[in-house]
Amino acid sequence: MKKSTIYRLSIAVVLLICICIYYKPLSFSKLLTEDCTFTLSLSEHTVSYGKPESNTVDYNDITAEQKGAILSLLEQYPYIRSPLTPFSDGNMSNIGPKLLIIYAAVDDSSSVKIVVTVSGQISINDKEYIMNNAEQFIEQITEIMK
After folding, report:
1. Helix or strand (DSSP H, E) at 79
2. Is 69 strand, coil or helix?
3. pLDDT tens per residue across span 72-85
4. What DSSP character marks residue 99?
5. How far apart are CA 78 and CA 111, in angstroms?
């Protein structure tokens, strides 16, 4: 083989490896641990008689049992980077009728804000990501909080 063919092939292999690493599924367990405290906010947006309505439920008093169930549920739902993740500012479009916001205080100096939409777009600390089965995730969180 010619040297130029080997160089092109090696560049293609390195590029393919970089793409695989970039789109590797990520876990919420690196963001939220047993030590953190968090609150949830679930917003449902509807239109009734031509007027937009928003129904928001805040869950501030989360029991240890609920916290454990939520953390184990978060481990079951990985997320991936979107092509625009490095350039995003957290703004999302086409979010759908439901929105789940998780505020977590990891320690005294750091916190995490996770926004999950039914359309599968999520925002973590104002960076956009993608989650499969986000609507099912929101429904399961709602069931845990009942």
Report:
1. strand 79-81
2. helix
3. 888 888 999 988 88
4. E
5. 20
